[in-house]
Write a structure and sequence with these properties.
The protein is of the alpha/beta class and about 375 residues long. It folds into 2 domains: about 10-250, Type I PLP-dependent aspartate aminotransferase-like (Major domain) (Aspartate Aminotransferase, domain 2), CATH 3.40.640; about 250-375, Aspartate Aminotransferase, domain 1 (Alpha-Beta Complex), CATH 3.90.1150. It is built from 13 helices and 14 strands. Strands 1-9-8-5-4-2-3 form a 7-stranded mixed β-sheet, sandwiched between helices. α10 (about 250-270) runs parallel beside α13. The protein starts with 8 loop residues before the first helix and ends with a helix.
Length: about 375
Amino acid sequence: MKKIQMVDLKGQYEKIKAEVDHGIQQVIDSTQFINGQAVKDFQADLEAYLGVKHVIPCANGTDALQVAMMALGLKPGDEVITSDFTFVATVEVIALLGLTPVLVDVDPETFNIDPAAIERAITPKTKAIVPVHLFGQAADMDAIMAIANRHNLFVIEDNCQAIGSTFTSAEGWSKKAGTIGHVGCTSFFPSKNLGCYGDGGAIFTNDDQLAHQLRGVVNHGMFVRYYHDYVGVNSRLDSIQAAVLKAKLPHLDAYCAARLAAADFYDKAFANHPKLRTPARFAKSSHVFHQYTLVSQDVDRAALIEFLGSHGIPAMIYYPVPLHLQKAYLDPRYKEGDFPVTEALSNTVFSLPMHTELDEEQLGFISSKVLEFLNR
């Protein structure tokens, strides 16, 4: 049996080696390492894939979120509502810009932001909502957009974990996650469903004027060389990373299908086990399984992870500490117990290996060892 990894990037690369190597060599031959043709080509390909008017490549997913907030004109003191159960980057950029993060709890089934909690958190200072499409499926964008429209709020989709997922509205339309709100953001970190071989990110919008401002912000606030219209940043997707992403994008749907097949295997193996709850699948969203995250019940989670590790099976906890209890983000507005769903999830979830190269032998071994521990 092959070595089990949380993410097998080498195995994935070997299947598309010729395409990736050719794209990288083209960039080297051209010496257009910044904003080269590879970036323009990937941008156009991603716009077509997502069905969105504008893709603005940038240096990473964290920058994508920060640039989006800057381009929308959010000012210090403005409140931005987001999930308490997510990676720190979502609130990090809010704090860096002097905005006020307003945390809310999540749905216990999907782990995505709870629309009812958003509604309760709105004040006259609220200017934006950042739903995080966690672990591979979209939040309830019908409800979130309705709230935003009622209160005249921006919606910035954090789509760093759900690229390729499709949201189908109760009204009948379908759109790719990240293209529904005013602006969407994604990361191309290597372990993502669409990952490069370094850092990378992108911002999406259908708003022509906003796209213009986003392009300025990522380039030092500059449209004409050495003339700066906005306070900006330096955030670019380099040409070599764009070449890698251009080679991988045509395979994204197949990658998502492979992850879904692995998730189906796990679901069947763990079905109805009294100590495990398998990931819920939101009816309005396809699930691309960036992570396969289980909720444990009456389980010594640390001992389980140690047991799996002793058998060569990596497992991770996303996320062990809610944002409102993180040292850097302690806030007198929040205390332990204020977000019961998030706190319960942080104490009980664990994630198993999930990637495109998992085979049935590996999946069977992983599942059997989890069950061995639970049933002993």
